[in-house]
Amino acid sequence: MTYIRRQGLRIGAFILLLIAYLSSSILLELATKYAGTKVALAEQFIGAMLISIAVILVLYTWLYQRQLKRYNPRHFGHLPFNRQRIGQLLLLFLLMLVIQITWSQLIVHHFLPMPSNQSAVNDSVKQLPFWNSAYGVAVAPVFEEYLFRGFFFNFFFSKKSRWSNILGLLVSGLLFGYLHTLAFSVTTLFYASLGWLLAGTYLYFKDIRYSMALHFMNNLWAII
């Protein structure tokens, strides 16, 4: 199999995994849309969303573990949580808070515009508070870390080298930022900076649960 064909297949597989994640978020959007007018229909969409989340979670976990068993030169796996690692994770969270607070102050003082996707998220939470909050805090961090850190590095930057780590981190963050804004702007760099921090966490701890935990804390803080 040629390199171009192999990379094409990997890109196609990544896109399909991304579509699977987006399908669950679309079901939540539909539930939110009908929450105030057609309650029974909204509840059906919520049920379909929960089923899709369960299926996608099983699929992602199985595929990720399968990839690591087949080729894992960086030795990604499960590292036990201890005081030192928890302390390091909290320091990374403080750094993420600094980024978030700095960005919010720039918005408050009208140096930067409010991200359009954040406005949409705020509106969704108002219409369907519990499910949108639960999805943003508990579901999105898991699926996005599997996608933008786990699968992304396994598919495209799996070699154990300094340049592979650096390029993988940069591209992962940029992709993460672009898919949150769907346009290149200053706001893209904000989300990209969060993506770079999450990718760095994944590569440093070599355990995807740590980047998931950091992503979870960030989203929880944003909602609170």
Task: Sum this structure up briefly.
It comes from Secundilactobacillus mixtipabuli. With 224 residues, this protein is mostly helical.
3D architecture notes:
Helix 1 (3-34) runs antiparallel to helix 2. It contains 8 helices and no strands. It has one domain. The longest helix is centred in the first third of the chain and has 32 residues, at 3-34. The model has no long low-confidence stretch (mean pLDDT 91). It is mainly α and 224 residues long. The N and C termini lie far apart (50 Å). Residues 128-220 form the CAAX prenyl protease 2/Lysostaphin resistance protein A-like domain. The chain crosses the membrane at residues 12-32, 44-64, 89-112, 132-152, 164-183, 189-205. This is CAAX prenyl protease 2/Lysostaphin resistance protein A-like domain-containing protein. One of its GO terms (molecular function) is endopeptidase activity. It comes from Secundilactobacillus mixtipabuli.
Features:
single chain, 224 residues, mainly alpha, 8 helices, 0% strand, Rce1/LyrA-like_dom, endopeptidase activity, CAAX prenyl protease 2/Lysostaphin resistance protein A-like domain-containing protein, transmembrane helix, transmembrane
Please describe the topology of this protein.
Blueprint: H1 3-34, H2 39-70, H3 83-108, H4 116-127, H5 129-156, H6 162-181, H7 186-205, H8 208-223
Organism: Secundilactobacillus mixtipabuli
Pfam families: Rce1-like
GO molecular function: endopeptidase activity
